[in-house]
Amino acid sequence: MAVQLNQIFVNLPVKNLETTKKFFNEIGFQFNPQFSNEDGACLVISEHIYAMLLTEQHFKTFINKEISDTSRHAEVILALSAESREQVDEIVNRALAAGGTKYNDPVDHGFMYGWSFQDPDGHLWEVFYMDPATIE
Description:
The protein is of the alpha/beta class. The chain has helices at residues 17-27, 56-59, 85-97; strands at residues 8-14, 30-37, 40-44, 49-55, 77-81, 101-108, 112-118, 124-130. The protein has a four-stranded mixed β-sheet with strand order 1-4-3-2. A hairpin with a 2-residue loop joins strand 2 (30-37) and strand 3 (40-44). Helix 1 runs antiparallel to helix 3 (85-97). The model has no long low-confidence stretch (mean pLDDT 96).
């Protein structure tokens, strides 16, 4: 039997919670205040996808390792599917205008289009669109 779960909460350490919240607000994301406080904020990505943006101090209470230095190392690429190529460009352009940095140039494979950015904490976000007509 295959395991299926209902939601995902990705936990990410952040250096300055207010700066990070402002960044994601400017892109157009919202936060769930029920799961947010001075130690972290619950970024709502979709009905089933959330990112818990935790202060580094609070994040450390969950781990027995060092926090990755995202200026030198990648710990994960958060890949999010968009509804269209235009939405990919819109989200990434908003991220760049809000203070994010370009990670890669847009990549067009014909059936799939993607573009990626880094948030203020150096986490890698890839927004992509896959044309459903090309999926068999």
